[in-house]
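Budget justification aside, the reviewers requested a transparent look at the raw inputs and outputs of the sequence design task funded under Objective 1. We therefore reproduce one unedited record. The lines immediately below are the structure tokens for a 470-residue chain.
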């Protein structure tokens, strides 16, 4: 239920409003002048304020302005016996969400108050989630003490400090790293550390949609631009105006769209589909990829001029296997968060488990580590995390040395060395046989091969294995 404040100098009306909403379970405070109303609001922090226009001392408009300065999220409804268009306009400008005229219908007031309560709750919830997400996405949330992570945090601060002072678009950023290293987290950190933190952060996965749909998502369209265009649609580039546009998996973007994106980066204008006019935008573009864009450009799959344009700032995220003891810092952090999330007692790392975490190569990087620990927390059997609880594949043991013995070599038959298949082709064929034997079920194939699912997926991607291989 909500906390309501009624500021009304007509005693009978104020009493009736309070009684009506108290019957619904709301808490209602009543005052009869504007100055007292502002002081009461400062003390109670109500969800909704119902304020009359004609009041002793401050009038309703002055009260609304004071309340707005105090709390921008508060929902305000004005009531008056002298409703005019000019007053309605002034009330809306001051910050009232609605204006009702006397004689007042309590049913109409109830409808407005219910809407105000829903809006207030929605805004509060949205702010909570935004603050929670921002807390885990700031520069300080990038856990690690290795030289690479210290250098990464310094680079993000440099990116944030590069914001132009003339309110022009900021230079683009290219984030490079393997899958699972946290490229989105770095992109958000670049956004939150900059003066654009209060603006929108719009994320686009360039691999998620085909080229024709991706163009509509990025640039939007005008009404009537095509058969189903019944209304104007704002594109995501325009929606990010004043903030940051994060283009994840930029290496997957179609060549036709790469040219249009290059034009955006050159003059920071967008033209919706079906429009004849450009719209100027002020946005920082952060792109991320796990590919070598320079190599992609040499192969003709990516525009070299777009590579140069995106690479004003290049941010590289080191894979987890190169970060030393950072894996242990991350593990401790994840175990604490996951224990809180699932209401489980926190798990402790014993030395053997820490050694296993340190020794494993983590082909899926930080994402694989988190998934591994989440599974361990959900399946925990005691207060200590044991190495077998991680479910990691054992490191490959070296072949045992052959016993030393004297061997008389046979006479040579041929000077040609025997043909030996390359290791990669042998591994690829072995993986293919295991996948086909289990109907391409990755979990079953990984279990048969005695590796984790993430390790198998990593090797499948390495060898380009797909279901229609044979």
């Amino acid at each position: 239920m909500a906390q309501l404040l009624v500021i009304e100098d007509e005693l009978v009306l104020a009493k009736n409003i309070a009684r009506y909403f108290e019957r619904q379970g709301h808490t209602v405070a009543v005052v009869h002048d504007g100055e007292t109303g502002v002081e009461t609001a400062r003390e109670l922090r109500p969800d909704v304020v119902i304020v009359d226009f004609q009041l002793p001392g401050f009038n309703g408009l002055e009260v609304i302005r004071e309340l707005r300065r105090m709390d921008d999220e508060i929902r305000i409804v004005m009531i008056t016996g002298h409703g005019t268009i000019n007053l309605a306009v002034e009330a809306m400008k001051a910050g009232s969400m609605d204006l009702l005229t006397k004689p007042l219908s309590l049913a109409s007031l109830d409808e407005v108050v219910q809407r105000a309560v829903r809006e207030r709750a929605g805004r509060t919830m949205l702010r909570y989630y935004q603050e929670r997400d921002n807390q885990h996405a700031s520069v300080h949330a990038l856990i690690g003490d290795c030289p690479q992570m210290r250098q990464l945090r310094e680079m993000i601060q440099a990116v944030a400090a590069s914001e132009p002072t003339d309110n022009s678009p900021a230079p683009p950023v290219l984030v490079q790293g393997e899958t699972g290293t946290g490229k989105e987290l770095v992109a958000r950190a670049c956004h939150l550390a900059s003066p654009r933190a209060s603006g929108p952060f719009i994320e686009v996965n360039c691999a998620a949609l085909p080229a024709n749909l991706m163009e509509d998502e990025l640039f939007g369209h005008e009404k009537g631009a095509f058969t189903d265009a019944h209304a104007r649609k704002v594109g995501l580039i325009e929606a990010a105006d004043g903030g940051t546009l994060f283009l994840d998996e930029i290496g997957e973007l179609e060549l036709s769209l790469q040219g249009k994106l290059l034009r955006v980066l050159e003059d920071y204008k967008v033209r919706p589909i079906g429009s004849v006019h450009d719209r100027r935008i002020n946005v920082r573009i952060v792109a991320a990829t796990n590919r070598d864009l320079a190599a992609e450009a040499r192969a003709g799959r990516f525009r070299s001029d777009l590579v140069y344009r995106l690479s004003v700032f290049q941010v590289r995220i080191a894979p987890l296997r190169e970060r030393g003891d950072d894996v242990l810092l991350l593990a401790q952090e994840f175990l604490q968060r996951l224990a809180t999330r699932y209401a489980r007692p926190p798990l402790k790392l014993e030395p053997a488990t820490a050694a296993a975490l340190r020794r494993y190569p983590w082909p899926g990087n930080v994402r694989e580590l988190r998934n591994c620990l989440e599974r361990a927390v959900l399946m925990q059997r005691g207060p200590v995390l044991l190495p077998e609880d991680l479910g990691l594949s054992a490191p490959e043991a070296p072949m045992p040395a052959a016993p030393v013995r004297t061997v008389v070599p046979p006479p040579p038959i041929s000077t040609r060395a025997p043909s030996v298949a390359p290791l990669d082709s042998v591994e690829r064929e072995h993986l293919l046989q295991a996948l086909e034997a289990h109907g391409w079920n990755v979990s079953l194939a990984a279990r048969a091969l005695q590796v984790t699912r993430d390790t198998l997926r990593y090797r499948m991607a390495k060898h380009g294995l797909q279901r229609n291989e044979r």
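Residues 395-410 have pLDDT under 50 and may be disordered. Residues 79 and 358 are 67 Å apart (CA to CA). Computational costs for records of this kind are itemized in the attached budget.
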